[in-house]
Amino acid sequence: MSRWLNNPVAIGVGTREIVVGARAPRLLRLRQPVSTAEPASVAIPEERCCTEPGALDALRAALAETLIATAAADDVAAAPQEGVQKRSAYMVLDDFWGNHAILRGDFRTLRARELEEIALAHFTDTYGIDGASLVVRFSVQRGGRALFASAMSRALHDGIHDVSASEHVGISRLRLCLPEMLNRIGDAAEGGEALLLFVADELMQAVMIEQNRWVAYDAQRLFPGDARDASRLAELAEQLFERSATRANLRHKDCNIYLFGVETELEPFEARFATAIRQAPPADSSPAHRLMECAQ
Asked: Helix, strand or coil for residue 276?
């Protein structure tokens, strides 16, 4: 069997596509070239887009295709299923598949179980969802006065693990996109106050920053065409700011806004905020492909 068949994989789960690619360990990437197999991409049928069954079926197909493609790239025959060793995988999902929140309070002395109960209570109260149907992840921000929490459907979470296991892949890391992006941005606002705006095709998310701390979160679903309409996005960004501002005297005209995600015109944002700063535009690839690259 090819040595590459057991390498880790990176998986991007979008709303319309699943992309799976090789994720060679860092030492191997430094010492020798990785497999030349192209990432496997499986589209979710239009009538099943944005549905958990559609995503799980596409994931199964993409993982099966990856095994075949990796074997072909190494010029070996795919081993029988019973002989394939389990590969590990890092997975990043579009934020459409979950919910986020930044809760404010004094979390400095609370234990992990207590923090989980607080996060579950928030999502249950906000969305009217049974807490038992959710999987929650959380982290206390520096200073202990804010809790960043994420929740996703337990059915989707468990379904991903079950489908992956059936294809001899073990999910070692599964995250929504926003926490990954925030951890990579670092001190984007350089110690000041700013609004970070993340725009995808179906969702726009805003994170308020004060003194390099995440202090508030809000999101807005987007309708078809919204993501390409800069004026509409700027209008929605102002609404998100009004709902996220933590001080009554903080005005959007005094706040910088940092734009991530789809490329858009800056002028409508500059008219509403102190400064509009576009971060590096996304690569010319599909959203699911960019999620897969994030998982790498």
From this structure: strand
Q: Give the orientation angle of helix 154-166 with respect to helix 52-73, to 10 degrees.
A: 30
pLDDT tens digit sequence for 202-223: 899 999 988 778 889 999 999 9
Return the SS3 of 143: coil
Place of tokens 């995250």: 175
Radius of gyration of the chain (CA): 20
Residue 40 tokens, joined = 């496997």
Whether the model pTM is above 0.90: no
Numbers of helices and strands, H then E, in the chain = 8, 13
37 strand-pairing partners: none
Question: DSSP state, 280?
Answer: P
d(CA 116, CA 275): 37
Residues 130, 155: contact at Cβ < 8 Å? no
86 pLDDT above the threshold of 70: yes
CA–chain centroid gap for 284, Å, is 18
Distance CA 71, CA 224 (A): 39
φ/ψ (deg, to 5) at 13: -110, 100
Helix-, strand-, coil-residue percentages of the chain, each rounded to 5? 40, 30, 30
Nearest Cα neighbor of 19 from 79, 93, 110, 126 is: 93
191: left (phi over 0), alpha (psi -120 to 50) or beta: left
Side-chain-facing half-sphere of 281: CA atoms under 13 Å: 8
Nearest C-alpha neighbor of 228 from the set 248, 202, 209: 202
